[in-house]
Amino acid sequence: MAKLYFHYSTMNAGKSTVLLQASHNYVERGMRTYLLTARLDTRAGEGRIASRIGIGTPADTFAPEDDLFARLRERLQEGPCACVFVDEAQFLTRGQVWQLARAVDDLKVPIMCYGLRVDFLGELFEGSAALLALADEMREVRTICHCGKKATMVVRRGPDGKALREGAQVQVGGNETYASLCRRHWREEMEEPPADANA
Fold first, then answer.
1. Which residues are annotated as a binding site for substrate?
2. Domain CATH code at residue 24
3. Record's family (predicted)?
């Protein structure tokens, strides 16, 4: 039975590596997959999903105005597709997540989405919020903070190395810009005052 999956994590947890390995598993068994990534993320080159460990593959891209149900229907008319993989799924719109859910239900194709859960201010991305609401199954891809605890948050650092407390939600970057932290160290870097014990 086809399902909509959401694999979420913080930065640098290996989401793209997991995606590429999962797609390879299908291809190795003679099945075809269809890969999509956000058009705005060109760190590995336009239309390319790549991992920090050095593996990558070409992919089609999506932008906020794209109708993904129509795109997937067209792709399935070209021939069999065992699974659809979507990287940088936090950049999907809410409407696009509904389009993916419709593709799962009506076109009977499994779709695996990989993306960040929250931004550098601890707020849900639009696509991630919709996936948390609509996905049939959710799986956390884990990474660790510098203290060894599970990282659940991410900070964006400025040129001086200090955590930024404001800015646009979307700013593409890598290790030079972002760091994954546990909640306690995220709060410390964001210089949040401790909660009032009497409140």
1. 170-173, 178
2. 3.40.50.300
3. Belongs to the thymidine kinase family.
Catalytic residue among 65, 74, 78, 88: 88
| Residue 88 among the catalytic residues | yes
Total number of residues shown for the chain? 199
The total domain count for the chain is: 1
Within a domain: 177: no
**What per-residue confidence (pLDDT) applies to 166?**
74
Domain that holds residue 82: 4-142
| Positions at the binding site | 9-16, 87-90, 145, 147, 170-173, 178, 182, 185
In the chain, which residues have pLDDT < 70?
42, 44, 170-176, 192-199
Structural domain contains residue 162: no
pLDDT per residue as tens digits for the range 74-122: 999 999 999 999 999 999 999 999 999 999 999 999 999 999 999 888 8
Pair 156, 178: CB distance under 8 Å: yes
